[in-house]
């Protein structure tokens, strides 16, 4: 693949390459293989490595993670806090080291207290998920079914559950704690140190390519794709679903 252009195309995963938390389709897989023959391809997601692996290569054990790391030029999980390039680990950073245990517990305790007062159509389990580079907060709980997930999406769209919680988190912690809060995926909020949004991954690639494209679905202010979409180092493209991503790839890279 040495003939490829010095162009990198970075994709968000959930809602961009796949339906939220569902596996990638065969059509998309084949399209990404064709795309990688022309340009370099990377994934940048807020999810941890196992979730990305489950969606993109249909498994989570070490064999599948190795396959994932070798199927794309770059894998940036948790916004790049756990990064792979050409099948090799680049960097791994922890939110504990950045925040310290005391502040981390304060964030978790505040979030659990806030969630305990919410009344939703339903609540399930795993409201707080600790990841390497961030804390993920889900008002409904990440163990909800697909039907319950979609029900929450509609309820959140009408009532602004996550938007209001982000405002409360910003008021409680804000810049003095060095934290950013962003709406992520369909059911959660990502909490991470300032600067640890998806632009974090650009430090590993910005000097290696003439052009860097980014494609994502949560590109509006407050969404977890916004910063990298709007960054001057990227050519940002916003999509509503993976069908639009397929058309975009074809129009930009494969029809010429």
Could you please describe the fold and organization of this structure?
Its EC number is 5.4.2.8. The chain has 2 domains: 7-93 and 198-254, Rossmann fold (3-Layer(aba) Sandwich); 95-193, Hypothetical Protein, Haloacid Dehalogenase-like Hydrolase, Chain: A, domain 2. Helix content is 37%, strand content 20%. It contains 9 helices and 11 strands. The chain has helices spanning 26-36, 49-57, 62-71, 95-99, 101-116, 146-159, 161-172, 226-230, 242-254, and strands at residues 7-11, 40-44, 74-77, 82-85, 88-92, 128-130, 135-137, 179-184, 188-193, 211-216, 235-238. The strands form 2 sheets. A 7-stranded mixed sheet has the order 5-4-3-2-1-10-11. The longest helix has 16 residues, at 101-116. The protein is globular and about 55 Å long. The mean pLDDT is 94.
What is the N-to-C order of secondary-structure elements (H for helix, E for strand)? EHEHHEEEHHEEHHEEEHEH
CATH class of the largest domain: Alpha Beta
Number of self-contained structural domains: 2
From the 3D structure, determine the CATH topology of the largest domain: Rossmann fold
Radius of gyration: 18 Å
- At CATH's second level, what is the architecture of the largest domain? 3-Layer(aba) Sandwich
Strand content: 15-25%
Helix content: 25-40%
* Total strand segments: 11
Secondary structure category: alpha/beta
Net shape = globular
Strand order of the largest sheet: 5-4-3-2-1-10-11
**How widely separated are the two ends?**
18 Å
Q: In this structure, how is the largest beta sheet organized?
A: 7 strands, mixed
| pLDDT < 50 runs, ≥5 residues | none
Number of DSSP helices? 9
């Amino acid at each position: 693949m040495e003939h490829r252009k010095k162009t990198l195309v970075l994709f968000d995963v959930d809602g961009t390459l796949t339906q939220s938390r569902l596996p990638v389709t065969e059509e998309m897989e084949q399209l990404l293989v064709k795309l990688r023959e022309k340009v370099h391809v990377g994934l940048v997601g807020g999810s941890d490595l196992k979730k990305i692996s489950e969606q993109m290569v249909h498994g989570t054990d070490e064999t599948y993670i190795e396959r994932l790391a070798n199927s794309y030029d770059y894998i940036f999980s948790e916004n790049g806090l756990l990064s792979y390039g050409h099948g090799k680990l680049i960097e791994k950073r922890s939110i504990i080291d950045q925040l310290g245990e005391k502040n981390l517990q304060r964030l978790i305790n505040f979030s659990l207290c806030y969630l305990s007062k919410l009344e939703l159509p339903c609540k399930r389990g795993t409201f707080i998920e600790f990841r390497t580079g961030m804390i993920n907060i889900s008002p409904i709980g990440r163990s909800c079914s697909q039907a319950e997930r979609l029900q929450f999406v509609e309820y959140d769209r009408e009532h602004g559950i996550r938007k209001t919680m982000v405002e409360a988190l910003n008021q409680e912690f804000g810049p003095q704690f060095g934290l950013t809060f962003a709406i992520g995926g369909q059911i959660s909020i990502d909490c991470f140190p300032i600067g640890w949004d998806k632009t974090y991954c650009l430090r590993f690639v910005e000097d290696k390519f003439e052009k860097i494209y980014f494609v994502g679905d949560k590109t509006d202010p407050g969404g977890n794709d916004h910063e990298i979409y709007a960054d001057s180092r990227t050519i940002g493209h916003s999509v509503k679903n993976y069908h639009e991503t397929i058309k975009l790839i074809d129009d930009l890279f494969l029809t010429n």
